[in-house]
Amino acid sequence: MTATTSPSPESTLPPAWRSWTARVLAHLDAWTTRLEAPFARWIRAPWAILFYHTGTLALWSLMLLVVSGIYLMLFYHFGFTETYASIAQIQNNIVGRVMRSVHRYASDFFLFFTLLHAWRMAVQRRFQGPRWLAWVSGVGLVLLTLIIGITGYWMLADDRAQWLHQALIQDLKASPGGQAIIVHYLLEHPANRGWVYLVTLFFIHVGLAAVMGLFYWWHVLRLNHRRWFPPRYWLLVLTGLWVGLGAVWPVELRPAWDFTAWPEQVPWDAWYLFLVPVWLRWGGALAWGMAVLAFVLWAAWPWLWPGPQPEPVRYNPEACIGCTLCAQDCPYRALEMVPRERDGKGPKLIARLNAVRCVGCGICVGSCPTDALTLDHPSLDELRARVQQAAQPVNGVAPRVTFVCYRHVLANPDLWAGPLQAEGPAGPRPVHVVAVPCIGDLHPDVVALAWASGAAEVQTIGCPPDDCVNRWGNTWLEGRLTRTRKPWLRRKWAGKPLRMDWVAPSEAAQVVRAAIDAVASAEPEPNSWRDLLRHPAAQKAALVTVVLAGLILAVAHLPYRGPAWAHEQGWLEIAFRHRPGLTIEEASVVQSGPGSPGEVRLEVYMDGTLVHRDVRSGDVLTSEMAFFAQWTATPGTHHVQVRLTDPEYTFTLLDETVTVQAGQVRRWWFHDLRTQGDPEMGRKLFLEEVPGVNAGCRLCHSLEPGVQLVGPSLAGIGTRAATRVPGMTAEEYLYQSIVDPDAYVVPGYPAGLMPPDARERLTEEQIQDLVAFLLTLTEEGTPTPTPK
Q: How far apart, in whole angstroms, are the C-alpha atoms of residue 555 and residue 202?
């Protein structure tokens, strides 16, 4: 008997799988698996092939990042010099050195695994339809990771962070508000120790890390049977690799940032800092605009990628017997069991389909014993007819029926086009192929139908373990056919010639012709650690991981000198805060006169040429304003003039000849000259509201009568200070108590409680402001300001 010609597997694919977009992704998937194939063939054991575990490997890397980050956070201090000193202290300790290294190495591996995971999900078409939430949240995780990584390098306060610092300054210096941020936060001077600046970076870094937890929850929200950890082997290998690297090749401590010169060359982590050179060269608007556009397009890919999408399953509730198998097997929680509306008969529970979550994989069809669930393409009737046709003998030779998932069909269109033959005990045996959306779509009775219709052998070809496009299709089918998971293969078919191949699409050509009795099932991961470490696959995978680590870390240590203009030019800067009507202490020439009515004008000339002009007008004339100017000069000697004109005065702030060298940065600070303190500024300083200053007064002193903290209450101090020390005015006493707190100790309090470094932390102007504020705290009316 000669069977009728069976349709080619490719011709039976539904429209959603025959579109040109599906073919493009299939070709990309095929090329990806071909690149992975040499490693997979050499290692062989799926649990040791890292390509199949990218998602869980990324999560494990993140867990170690969090643990090491919490440890480092315990010793991190804030300030331009304090931050670097705290990191140097961590580096001096072997535990700290290893934890720093684990944090750094795990971060690079985390981003590598995340990007590899995203690529594999894209080419496997796991972003369309109901999977959009996992896709968008995954893109959000990558974006958060990049920002967290950039701020992490920024927080080191070393020469590499200096380029990030400069990139931010370049973006801010064009506007008055940006100049205020630069002067108050970003420049090191006695009134700014960088405390707020580094605290802000810290909270961005840690805060976004916490937000990642929310994105991870969204990422797995629609998944059933979530897998959190990779195989035990990878837990050991990755942790041991990072700890070992930390002990043998720890992360180096770079020199501290130096705001007087640009660093010559720094190791550049291209995984995270690839955007910074663009930022420095063309500005943040272009760099971050390109990044935002790229991430928006990336996140919108499920809706931008054309082509039809697989249709959800069709459900007949009248045929449901409430066995719960479909809800247990569905990988995407599209089915749940709910109480049946009781009519006196039928099961207590019935399945409810959420079509919005259904990806059309058909795994539930393979679980259902009553045909309550079916696909449109192919329907159960169509699938059974194809199996019966494929099982018919060819020229008297019973064939092998091979079930193949759509992924393998699309990746190997030429393989399935012609007649196939497999090795058999009596010679070649014809192979007839039946394609299904996912190998988990097969119910054991459909597989048994092949034997019942005349097939001599049955073969199933699906994705490798832990790499099924629909997550659990291969695992569930193997359990059904080996009678370890319901629905079971009926006993009368147990022991029939059966071969199960879970391989990448690139390996399908080899296994489809293999003998039925050849070793096919993947070897499970050994249970004991001893057997695991001695396993040949474990040793091969460890070697691959070491080589991969070298490549990842090479990308993280590319040499970078910064923009050419930074090293070819000298850099000049001026910075100051000015309130119209006050004179400037450093001004070499002060001309009193009409000035510039209605505006404040800053002009910078170099060698007689105007290089910077900044004009302010409007309401800002009634308050203090910040100025910052930065410009370049060719190496050599130049004559620099800086003039400031306000409604009352014209100042010549600088008029001198300066010599600059290539890569050198010279900065001048100017200050208003005030004859007395400003009580309002003193109040803000007391409450730590002046940006960049950590006076710390309110931590130890209350402004409420009778409330004793570390030190005495300051309620009414303006009155008591006048009689506290005979011969001293209230102003003199308060000033002395701030700069030399042990000179006159309040009775009942020991000496040494108050820090004696006020002159190091505060400017003379700020001390005067504090004194002016304290003088307002009289017995008649003691204000109790509320901190913001």
A: 25
Q: Which two tokens stand for residue 106?
A: 């795990």
Spatial CA neighbour of 368 closest among 335, 403, 320: 320
Which residues are CB-neighbours of 301 under 8 A, at least 6 positions away?
122, 127, 135
Question: Rg of the chain over CA atoms, in angstroms?
Answer: 36
Domain 310-375 sits in CATH 3.30.70.1790: no
197 SS3 class: helix
What integer pLDDT is reported at residue 149 of this predicted model?
97
Average confidence (pLDDT) per 10 residues, the chain, 788 residues? 58 80 89 91 89 95 96 93 94 95 97 96 91 95 97 95 94 92 85 82 96 95 92 93 94 93 92 94 92 95 85 92 94 93 77 93 94 91 93 89 92 78 80 92 96 93 91 94 94 92 87 71 73 88 94 95 87 90 78 71 94 84 86 94 87 92 92 76 71 64 85 87 83 84 84 79 80 84 43
The residue whose two tokens read 């304090």 is: 82
Domain 679-774 superfamily per CATH: Cytochrome c-like domain (1.10.760.10)
Instruction: Look at residues 779, 778, 701 and name the one whose alpha carbon lies nearest to residue 741.
Output: 701
- For residue 322 the two structure tokens come to 């409430």
Edge-to-edge strands, sheet with 457-462: 420-422, 429-436, 400-405, 457-462, 498-502
With tokens 């590319």, the residue in question is 558
Question: For residue 245, which of 121, 109, 142 has the smallest C-alpha distance?
Answer: 109
Determine the Cα–Cα distance for residues 644 and 587; give it in Å rounded to an integer: 9
Beta bridge partners of 650: 591, 645
626 strand-pairing partners? 577
CA nearest to 652, candidates 663, 640, 641: 641
Cβ 641 vs Cβ 738: under 8 Å: no
pTM of the predicted protein model:
0.85
What are the start and end residues of each CATH 1.20.810.10 domain in the chain?
Answer: 55-304
C-alpha torsion 556→560→563→565, nearest 10: 170
Residues carrying CATH 1.10.760.10, the chain: 679-774
**How confident is the model at residue 486, as a pLDDT?**
93
- The rounded distance, in Å, linking the Cα atoms of 514 and 45 is 19
55-304: what CATH class? Answer: mainly alpha
Q: Count of alpha carbons within 13 Å of 262, Cβ hemisphere only?
A: 24
Fold adopted by 569-673: Immunoglobulin-like (2.60.40)
CATH 3.30.70.3270 segments of the chain: 310-375
C-alpha–C-alpha distance, residues 496 and 477, integer Å:
16
